[in-house]
Design brief:
- By secondary structure, the protein is an alpha+beta fold.
- The protein contains eight helices and 22 strands.
- The strands form five sheets. Strands 1, 2, 8, 9, 10, 11, 18 and 19 form an eight-stranded mixed beta sheet that branches.
- Strand 1, helix 1 and strand 2 form a beta-alpha-beta unit.
- Helix 1 crosses helix 8.
- The longest helix is centred in the N-terminal third of the chain and has 18 residues.
- The C terminus is likely disordered.
């Protein structure tokens, strides 16, 4: 076994949130180790692909407040790159008057924006939507809004910037292709992490120890916390997307989301292009230029509970629905799906909550040793929170009494209770599927 030196902070999981945590820890002078199961910048987790949406609108006020609070963190990170980390294309929401989706609903988001004085442009019908972007033939009753501060996150550049900025501090060591096989937290203020070279023999094992531990392994979280006798109640979607070639050079789109549902009198209707949730992006010169990405917002194949159950290839059903949407409503694009891909998204699935959190961020149960020295983040769409989430995790590790996050400046101060993101910890192996209630 390779025995290595001690660290102030170990981060398990080297995706965007893990890299953000390492960066913020290193800024505080913490000697930090990041352990990644695969290679860095891989496409095997929630950060697969090039792009994610940034938006300010949420159904919940505290989530919009967190988005607003993240903006200065994005600006700070932008100093390290000549490429825009967040584009300024805006965010277009439109479709039917529905709620209960993973994104919430149009009217609920408008209520939050009104409360928080977030400006937006109402779009009263399909014609108004089609004047804002190159859609056509939308159902006449569709309505929505355009919010100018939304845009598209360059995920790979963001990861690279965080990696480089953390490395430049001189406080961070990166390990890749190391799987965590055991975490021993029995000795107070001394957490031991045991790893093994991914897919190789026990002779490749290593041992590290730290005072503080951050677990940011996304859909793989239950592989990580199993040795602690715990499990996190999540379910996992494999999500599919594709790019479609522009055949009209004047076709233009912001980031967008289409709210659609099955008829109330036929709730078991097969998913199709006019009753499914879809979303998309503008053409991006750093992500298959000349093409536009469109994706379905539902689980590809089926809901799973272990990442090993995923199918790497997207299903024909998801691709057909995206292609049909493009053919009907985006005439500036060729409806042939290209550059297809999938990613994993973990979602909160607590059996004891009627309404699920937007993401999980919490300490270990208080009865366990080192409970306030170990913080776990998982689940939810957190791309828009990448730079601020690392700061939140470090704040929790440095202040075990922390009950709320306070961000903002001048007259815009936001206080966000930590309880919104509490994990309903379960015993290891106790992951009985429950119905996921969307928000």
């Amino acid at each position: 076994m390779n025995t290595n030196t001690s660290y102030d902070l170990i981060v398990i999981g080297g995706g965007p949130i893990g890299l953000s945590t390492a960066y913020h820890g290193a800024k505080q002078g913490l000697k930090t180790l990041v352990i990644e199961k695969f290679s860095y910048f891989n496409n095997l987790g929630s950060s697969a692909g090039y792009s994610r949406q940034f938006r300010l609108q949420y159904e919940q006020e505290y989530m919009s407040e967190l988005c607003l609070s993240s903006q200065p963190f994005w600006r700070d990170l932008q100093r390290f790159s000549s490429l825009p980390l967040v584009g300024d294309q805006g965010s277009l929401w439109f479709g039917q008057n529905i709620s209960g989706t993973q994104e919430g609903g149009i009217d609920q988001a408008k209520d939050t924006m009104n409360t928080l004085d977030i400006p937006y442009e109402p779009l009263v019908d399909a014609k108004a939507i089609e004047q804002k972007a190159s859609f056509a033939n939308l159902p006449s009753k569709y309505y929505g809004f355009f919010q100018k501060d939304g845009g598209t996150i360059n995920v790979k550049e963001t990861e690279q910037v965080l990696y480089n900025a953390a490395l430049a501090t001189g406080h961070v060591t990166f390990k890749e292709w190391e799987s965590v096989v055991n975490i021993d937290s029995s000795e107070e203020n001394c957490i031991k992490v045991f790893t093994q070279r991914s897919g190789q023999s026990p002779e490749t094992s290593s041992y590290y120890q730290c005072a503080k531990l951050a677990i940011t392994t996304g859909a793989y979280v239950n592989d990580t916390v199993r040795s602690l006798g715990l499990s996190v109640p999540i379910l996992i979607w494999q999500m599919a997307s594709a790019y479609f070639k522009k055949i009209d050079e004047h076709a233009h789109f912001p980031s967008w989301f289409a709210f659609q549902s099955k008829p109330k009198d036929d709730p078991k209707q097969e998913e199709n292009a006019t009753n499914s949730l879809l979303y998309g992006f503008p053409e991006l010169d750093w992500a298959n230029p000349g093409y536009v990405r469109v994706a379905t917002d539902f689980p590809d194949y089926k809901i799973i509970y272990d990442p090993s159950e995923r199918q790497l290839a997207p299903s024909e059903k998801s691709l057909d629905i995206a292609s049909s949407w493009v053919k009907q409503f985006m005439p500036g694009l060729d409806p042939t799906p290209m550059h297809t891909s999938t990613c994993l998204i973990a979602l909160c699935n607590s059996p004891n909550l009627e309404v699920q959190p937007e993401f999980f961020l919490d300490y270990l149960p208080k009865e366990l040793p080192n409970s306030k020295n170990i913080v776990t983040y998982t689940a939810g769409w957190a791309g828009k929170f990448i730079p601020i989430m690392g700061d939140m995790i470090i704040k929790m590790l440095q202040d075990p009494a922390l009950e709320q996050f306070t961000y903002g400046e001048d007259e815009r101060i936001y206080t966000i209770p930590r309880s919104h993101f509490a994990i309903d910890w379960q015993p290891v192996g106790d992951l009985t599927p429950v119905k996921k209630e969307s928000k």
